[in-house]
Fold this sequence. Notes:
Blueprint: H1 2-21, E1 30-31, H2 44-56, E2 60-65, E3 68-73, H3 78-85
Antiparallel strand pairs: 1-3, 2-3
Helix pairs in contact: 1-2, 1-3
Amino acid sequence: MQSEVNSMENIKKALLRKLVYMNKWGNNHTSFDNLPKGFPSHLGKEVKKVAKELIKKELLLTKPTSYGFEVSLNPKKSQEIKSIVFS
């Protein structure tokens, strides 16, 4: 269980880092379905699970589209996001 929690924290940090480096803040979105790209294929479900938790915590914003939804980093939470990414 501990390794699972640690793994989820690592995914969270890597996912936020990816979006920060892609400069996906505010109105600059990326598709939710593209979030697992760049991660090992066996982690796809975990990446999406972590992303949904980040949406609940309002670290990620969502935008509905005709083909699903897109996400971006919440600029109002930039300090919290940067503290996670650069810790």
